C-alpha cells in the first residue's frame, strides 16, 4: 500500500492562528525560515526515496522561485495553496477565485508544469461555502484536498466523506485521513495532532486505514514544523502558542520514522485511480 505525503508550504508567520498578531503588510519584513526548512525536508525525502506533493503559497513562490524549481527537480508534485493564505470563508467567491487563479498561474509559469491540485488554507472549504468547490473546478484544478473530516474549533467537516469523492464535475476532493474508532473520525493525517500525540498513535491509525479500510492514507505537514529554532510569536494567545510550538523538536525524528514505517508517494500517483475516474 502506497500512502500520500503532502506539505503545505507556508512560513511560520503565515499560519492562520497567528494571523491576528501579524499584519500581512509586515510579512515582507519578517525573517523567512521557509528556504532552510524546505531544504531540510527535501534532503530528508531524498535520502529516503520519498516523493511528496507540495502545496505552495503563490506569495512565497514569487519570492523564492529557486525553491519551486527544487521541488520539481526532486521529482515531487507541485500544487497550489492559494496566493495569500486567506481562508476561503473570509472571502467572496470573486476574491477567492482571483486568489486561486493567480497562484496557479504563478506556479505554472515558474515551473513549466501543469498544477492540478489545490488545498485551501486551514481546510476552509465546507458546509458554509459549497460555492468554493465550483470556483476550484472553474479555475482548472483537477483535485482539491481542502476537507479534514474531523471536529475541530478552527476547521473540520466531521460529516464529510472520509475518502476521495467527486465534489463537482471534473473535480475530486481528496480529504485528509481519519481513522474510524469509538463511533467518530479520529485525525490520522498529521498537522498538530502528529506533534501533540505520541508517534505510535499515528502509526496505528495509518495502519488501520490501510488494513481495515483497504485505502491509502493522506498525511500533511508544514515546513515550520521541523524548525524548533523559529522566532517565537509571543503576542499570540496561549492556546495558539501551545498548538504551534508543542513538540517541534520531535517532528524531524518522527518524520524519519514515518518514512521507514510506510511507503509514500505524491498525491497524483497514490490516488491515481481515483483521479482517473473523473
Ligand atoms: Zn496553510
As a percent range, the share of strand residues is: 15-25%
Radius of gyration: 17 Å
Assign the structural class, choosing from mainly alpha, mainly beta, alpha/beta, alpha+beta, or little secondary structure. alpha/beta
**CATH architectural grouping:** Alpha-Beta Barrel
Report the principal-axis shape. globular
Order of helices and strands: EHEHHEHEHEEEEEHHEHHEHH
Q: Tally the helices.
A: 11
Small molecules held by this entry = zinc ion
Helix fraction? 25-40%
Q: Mind summarizing the main beta sheet?
A: 5 strands, parallel
pLDDT < 50 runs, ≥5 residues? none
Average residue pLDDT: 95
Total beta-strand segments: 11
According to CATH, the fold-level topology is: TIM Barrel
N-to-C CA distance: 22 Å
CATH top-level class:
Alpha Beta
Name the CATH homologous superfamily: Glycoside hydrolase/deacetylase
| Count of spatially separate domains | 1
What does this structure look like?
The protein contains eleven helices and eleven strands. With 278 residues, the chain is α/β, with parallel strands linked by helices. The protein has one domain: Glycoside hydrolase/deacetylase (TIM Barrel). The strands form three sheets. Strands 1, 2, 3, 10 and 11 form a five-stranded parallel beta sheet that branches. It has a four-stranded mixed beta sheet with strand order 4-5-7-6. Strands 8-9 form a two-stranded antiparallel sheet. Helix 4 (93-111) packs parallel to helix 5. The mean pLDDT is 95. The chain binds zinc ion (ZN). Residues 8, 10, 81, 85, 121 line the site of zinc ion.
Amino acid at each position: 500500500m502506497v500512502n500520500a505525503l503532502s506539505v503545505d508550504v507556508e512560513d511560520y508567520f503565515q499560519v492562520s492562528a497567528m494571523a491576528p498578531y501579524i499584519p500581512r503588510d509586515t510579512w515582507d519584513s519578517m525573517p523567512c525560515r521557509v528556504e532552510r526548512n524546505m531544504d531540510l525536508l527535501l534532503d530528508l525525502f531524498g535520502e529516503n526515496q520519498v516523493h511528496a506533493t507540495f502545496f505552495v503559497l503563490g506569495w512565497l513562490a514569487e519570492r523564492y522561485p529557486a525553491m519551486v524549481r527544487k521541488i520539481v527537480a526532486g521529482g515531487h508534485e507541485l500544487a497550489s495553496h492559494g496566493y495569500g493564505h486567506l481562508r476561503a470563508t473570509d472571502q467572496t467567491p470573486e476574491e477567492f477565485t482571483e486568489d486561486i487563479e493567480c497562484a496557479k498561474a504563478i506556479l505554472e509559469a515558474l515551473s513549466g508544469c501543469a498544477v492540478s491540485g489545490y488545498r485551501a488554507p486551514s481546510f476552509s472549504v465546507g458546509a458554509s461555502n459549497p460555492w468554493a468547490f465550483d470556483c476550484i473546478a472553474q479555475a482548472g484544478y483537477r483535485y482539491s484536498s481542502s476537507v479534514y473530516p474531523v471536529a475541530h474549533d478552527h476547521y473540520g467537516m466531521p460529516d464529510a466523506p472520509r475518502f476521495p469523492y467527486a465534489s463537482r464535475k471534473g473535480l475530486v476532493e481528496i480529504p485528509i485521513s481519519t481513522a474510524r474508532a469509538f463511533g467518530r473520525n479520529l485525525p490520522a493525517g498529521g498537522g498538530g495532532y502528529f506533534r501533540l500525540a505520541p508517534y505510535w498513535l499515528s502509526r496505528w491509525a495509518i495502519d488501520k486505514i490501510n488494513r481495515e479500510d483497504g485505502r491509502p492514507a493522506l498525511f500533511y505537514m508544514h515546513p515550520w514544523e521541523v524548525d524548533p529554532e523559529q522566532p517565537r510569536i509571543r503576542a499570540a494567545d496561549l492556546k495558539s502558542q501551545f498548538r504551534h510550538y508543542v513538540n517541534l523538536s520531535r517532528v524531524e525524528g518522527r518524520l524519519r520514522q514515518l518514512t521507514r514505517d510506510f511507503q509514500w508517494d505524491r498525491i497524483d500517483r497514490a490516488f491515481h485511480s481515483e483521479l482517473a475516474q473523473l
